[in-house]
Amino acid sequence: MNGPVIHDATTLPVDDNVNPYAFSVELKGSKWFLQKGKMIAYYGRIDFHGIGHGPLDRLIAGSFHSPLHAADWVVAEGQGKMLLADRSFDVNSYDLEDGNLTVRSGNLLAFEPSLSLKQSIVPGFLTLIGTGKFVAASNGPVVFVEPPIRVDPQALVGWADCPSPCHHYDHQYLRGVMGGVRRLTGLGGASGEEHQFEFVGAGTVLLQSTEQLMAEAPTGEGPPDEAGVPGGGGGHGNQPMPRLPGQLGDLQRRFGL
Amino acid sequence: MPFRLLNSRMVEAQVVPGQRLFSQRGAMLAYRGEVSFTPSITGGQGGVMGMIGRRVANEATPLMAVEGSGTVMFGHGGHHVHVVELSGDTLYVEADRLLAFDGTLQQGTMFMGSQGGVMGIVRGQVTGQGLFTTTLKGHGAVAVMAHGGVIELPITPHRPVVVDPQAYVAHRGDVRNKLSAALGWREVVGRGSGEAFRLELSGNGTVYVQASEEKL
After folding, report:
1. Nearest Cβ partner of A150 from B30, B40, B75?
2. Consecutive sets of 10 residues in chain A, 257 residues long: mean pLDDT of each?
3. How far off is chain A from B54, nearest CA to CA, in Å?
4. ipTM above 0.85, yes or no
5. Which CATH code for domain B3-210?
6. Residue B200, min C-alpha distance to chain A (Å)
């Protein structure tokens, strides 16, 4: 058994994990973007500016393209080391090299300004483009998988280089005679796996080890209310899903099936 | 069909045509290939009688049958996963701790009160197991969920193992269990040690214990 490791300003890792749940960032006059409330401790002299402050306008114009998240982010600037963590979720850093990665907005903790943050056209996701390091949390360790793959929507953390996230509906068991009975009576219930996200093509998909989502960060208003903008108009990104032929809606729940 | 642990909370299973797998509903995280997930009305094997037995015993956890060809990744609720390989022996486990198991394993329910009489019933209450528990028998693998990591403790005839009933996960082999209670005036006035109930397992086999006293 080893006891607790005691760190000080010199032994804290530089831009690396302290343990699976905490990440240490070194600032040498540089800047990092971080989500509000994710800094748990720091050494040195670090200032945290809310986005929208005068002196940082140029930086924000260059690497922050997500007006609806502006209220949730701050810029850390100065000398020292800071520790990032999020509700004891697993924290990992990722390096992008002239790449792109889309991640669930609640999971992203911090990123270097050499990356630029953009809202994904998939509501609730953010895309990072460029070269640099970012830190993201997940409920359980992250597993990297390669397409073609179908993923439980709640287990998805993000994806890199895959241009094709789409929905996949599976109602195979609702066909045939037994399927008809099942559909009419609701007997047997649903498997809970009728709907997945499907990824094809080249790239990497990031999965967390459980289907329990981390609470989403509040996203403020939705994207601009324009024709053809998914999730546009009203702020609630997800419209209610149309009811599918096999779904009985509340009936199944009432029977406890 | 072996389960492969991807990390402490996720397993990957190979599905080949003609061999089915049962898993807890909603526990699939991702899959490759053509795999279908059918909710199992009867909650496993044994037809309608098996279903009625499980309903009566309150061991009817919603299961789904996984068939097809491909690989499937399972994980549930952020719980730790432990893979148990059975080779002809029997695993005694609570149905809601089952993440996934081989379709070739024989599923049954067992009345816990038959071991230890009244104390067996109290035991069921204390461990949160109720009066019945699920048994899995045969050759194959089972992925069991636990809150915190799982420790395997061997039980030999001369070395019984005593565990906290809340940390108990499952056991296998030819094992008798006995709940012992050390209730005294201290417990009555609320100054107990918090360890009044102990589960003593004796015989020949293995007990699985989780590193937490939290139930699933």
Report:
1. B30
2. 78 89 91 88 89 69 72 87 89 90 89 88 88 91 90 90 81 65 62 81 89 65 64 48 49 45
3. 15
4. no
5. 3.60.160.10
6. 27
